[in-house]
Amino acid sequence: MNEDEIRARARAFREATPASDRLAFLRARFDAGLAWVHFPEGLGGLGAPRELQLAVEQELEGTPQLDPGLQAIGLGMAAPTILAFGTEEQKKRFLRPLWTGEEIWCQLFSEPGAGSDLATLATRAVRDGDEWVVDGQKVWTSGAHHARWAILVARTDPDVPKHRGLTYFVCDMHAPGVEARPLRQITGEAEFNEVFLTGVRLPDDLRLGAVGDGWRVAQTTLMNERVAIGGNAGRRGGGMIGMVAQTWRERPELRTPDLHQRLLRLWVEAEVTRLAGVRLREQLAAGQPGPEGSGMKLAFASLNQALTGLEVELRREEGLGYDDWTFRRSESVDFAGRDAGYRYLRAKGNSIEGGTSEILRNIISERVLGLPSEPRVDKDIPWKDLPR
Amino acid sequence: MTSLLYSEVEEELRAAVRGVLADKSSPASVLARVESDAPYDMGLWKTLAADMGVAGLLIPESRGGAGASAREVAVVLEELGRSVAPVPFLTSAVLATTALLAAPEDPGDLLSRLASGDLTAALAVPFSASPYGFRDETVTAGADGTLSGRVTAVAGAAVADVLLVPASGALYAVEAGHATVETVPSLDLTRPIATVTLWSAPAVRIASDLSGVRRALLTGAGLLASEQLGVAKWCLDTTLAYLKERHQFARPIGSFQAIKHRMADLWLDVVRARAAARGAADALAGEEDPSLAVAVAQAWCGDVAVHVAEEALQLHGGIGMTWEHPLHLFLKRAKAAQLALGTPGDHRQQVGVLADLPA
């Protein structure tokens, strides 16, 4: 299907479908294959090249839209993983309400003892007939209190080396034994949760991929996550550099030659990073994201931190203030929200969440540059025997 | 004789202050306090100021002080930085005290009362005021000698009994009861700032120019470097301990060369921060012009404290992003201190002037 055909199809859909009922419109859009055109027919797509999605978005501008904040995990991480590894039944069951936002998703990966070394995670899933019984603790789960479903990685075999004993599940967040507690961050608010899983029973048909294949399935999720965090190219001079630039333009009394040079340096860095993101998007238009996506996320984090730090410094006296330390649960992730002090503190998480900058540098050096990996002491030792 | 090392007396003072802080100001208790209605710990301040006498370090013995110098003050600041203790030492015993020491008049014998710890004072200038570009523009002295105006972002004002207020080119003492002092949400939870508003407030003129205020800002900037050193040192030590203990990939994360090299770089930054901070303290204690030593120390230590705190957070990973871990108190102190008493850029610019490196 080419661009003209897709545009015609989107226009016809728009004319034929009333937009008054948001949910009905989104369901109809999914059923018409205009949700994500690169997905197969019957699953919200048309089996078309990924880049043609832009044409659909243009034709359907002004119609009811998704909630990108609330649906980020579902759209960016769960959906590509379900598409790649789910059974036909799972794809049919989950993808439509995921896309329309009727069901919100969260991610149960990181644990207190398993951050950068995710594969060492300790949450156990033990088979009991047609069910799995899950016990453990997860952390850094955004949106857990809104979520209907979670993508979950758990240990199903502690007697084999760590990467081989993992299995990937869809976790029912309404199941008995699932408890989400808000986790307060340095910004004062709780954007994330700790999730405690106690005797949670999941039917085997919520397993995604083969038993013991959880690490491979999780890689698909993580590659997509890094692109989702770092891969939004945006417009020239937009995003975080745009906020600092706006302060600079509106407040001539704050300017100094020193700050000017530093701002210009960061503006250039933001622009070349944006261009690299555009180029990466073009390369990946038809395929799955590769390890190059890690570079974008690495650049995004360091740039955000430099820019927000500069803005607090630029504001001088105002930088000594803070808008509000009240402990509250935020409804969605927003790196740019609120005042400069908030953005400065929030940006500190950008180099930790979704793969630390250290892990991303390892990925780049080993998988992109082909440098030999560090000697690994844990590769062939059963997980249960690892020092920790 | 000048020295960048610590004397025996200075080490004894350090040990005494550290002992009190370990006992009364653990990171967990500071975290609990900053969320209360009384973020400054006035019980701890009384122990330090009155019982130990640190409030009077800069005040001559003839006025009831210890007659010590900036060097001893710097050691106390290192320890206060190392524990982000919420006490008004820098704001009262350094900034306000220095301004008062330079003033020709001291009608209420304020210095003696500051030295004994009976009184706490604050210099009513924005904490971001630079020693190089300070102008008193926001408060005016009326013909009747009262003051009217507003000063924003004043550190330590909320717990001051007396405010030293620059107005119309002179310096005045105002009883805090005659001013409205409103604490505002502050980036630095352990040194909140306040807005000071004066409405025809009765005031006593103590100096007819602002030279003492500029001297106070310069002294404060130079000694703040020692506090920043203390902040950086806590972050470095705490991170080092964590890197030895935290295992990922079946080994302590501190065994990874990429991490070790970063720690070595941070250590070198802190080594030089210590030398710079000592240099400023020693210069402020001596007879010669301390300006270049102060500018160098503040240009270096302001950024180093922020950098070490930021790296400490990153090397702690997710736990460093939590409210529950005290690290954020140090990051917030470091970032606010970077803006305080002139930014590193302001001090670099002054280095340009003093080291004959014109723009």
TrEMBL record, chain B:
UniProt cross-references to InterPro entries, sorted A to Z: AcylCo_DH-like_C, AcylCo_DH/oxidase_C, AcylCoA_DH/ox_N, AcylCoA_DH/ox_N_sf, AcylCoA_DH/oxidase_NM_dom_sf
Domain Acyl-CoA dehydrogenase/oxidase N-terminal: start-end pairs: 8-115
Cofactors (names): FAD
Stored Gene3D superfamilies: Acyl-CoA dehydrogenase/oxidase, N-terminal domain, Butyryl-CoA Dehydrogenase, subunit A, domain 3
Domain Acyl-CoA dehydrogenase/oxidase C-terminal: start-end pairs: 216-350
Any GO molecular function: flavin adenine dinucleotide binding
Domain of life: Bacteria
Keywords recorded for this protein, A-Z: FAD, Flavoprotein, Oxidoreductase
Record flagged with keyword Flavoprotein: yes
SUPFAM superfamilies membership: Acyl-CoA dehydrogenase C-terminal domain-like, Acyl-CoA dehydrogenase NM domain-like
Family classification: Belongs to the acyl-CoA dehydrogenase family.
Entry protein name: Alkylation response protein AidB-like acyl-CoA dehydrogenase
Source organism (scientific name): Thermocatellispora tengchongensis
